[in-house]
Write a structure and sequence with these properties.
7 helices, alpha/beta, globular, Rossmann fold, 173 residues
């Protein structure tokens, strides 16, 4: 089983990776050299992933781990493996306002990536996917964590995890 956290940038993917790590699921991550967008929980990026890098061998190597893959790259997953995909959703206006704050001059590329991700999701229609609403996760963490835990088969309604989900993370309501 591979746990995939997906969505667009600024949709709550880093928070979800942090939650899974706190629940004891190892995270595949590295920080790109040019990464300069700060987050509350650190940074989780995929190791070795590109349109050709998510191979069967790579998938075997990361069994039992969580990896963050933006939705525009979900079409490269080898089909012979079992995945549990947590798709983070956040309203478009909040994402764009947050991207504008952090992405600066590259807004056009970020907006293209957002729409490409939606198109890929419509084309690929991944199995074993749970849509997680970011706003609802912030407002009702116990309820949403219980649903996610049931989906992935891991207990998440731990008070220590709930404490990590801070209401002030709801930037740009």
């Amino acid at each position: 089983m591979i746990y995939i956290v997906s969505g667009s940038k600024r949709s709550g993917t880093t928070l979800m990776m942090h939650i899974l790590k706190m629940a004891g699921i190892p995270a595949v991550h590295e920080i790109p050299k040019n990464f300069d967008i700060p987050t509350e929980y650190g940074t989780y990026y995929e190791c070795g992933l590109s349109t050709t890098g998510f191979t069967d061998l790579f998938a075997k190597k990361i069994q039992g781990q969580a990896i963050k893959i933006f939705s525009y790259a979900l079409n490269v997953l080898p089909k012979e493996h079992e995945y549990r995909i947590l798709l983070m959703r956040r309203d478009k206006d909040s994402i764009f306002k947050s991207l504008e704050k952090y992405a600066g001059k590259n807004m056009e590329g970020e907006i293209r990536a957002y729409y490409l991700g939606n198109r890929v999701l419509n084309e690929v229609k991944p199995k074993n996917m749970l849509i997680v609403d970011y706003g609802r996760l912030i407002e009702k963490p116990e309820e949403v964590l219980k649903e996610i835990g049931a989906f992935i088969g891991v207990k998440l309604d731990n008070p220590e995890i709930v404490k990590e989900i801070k209401p002030n993370l709801r930037h740009f309501k």
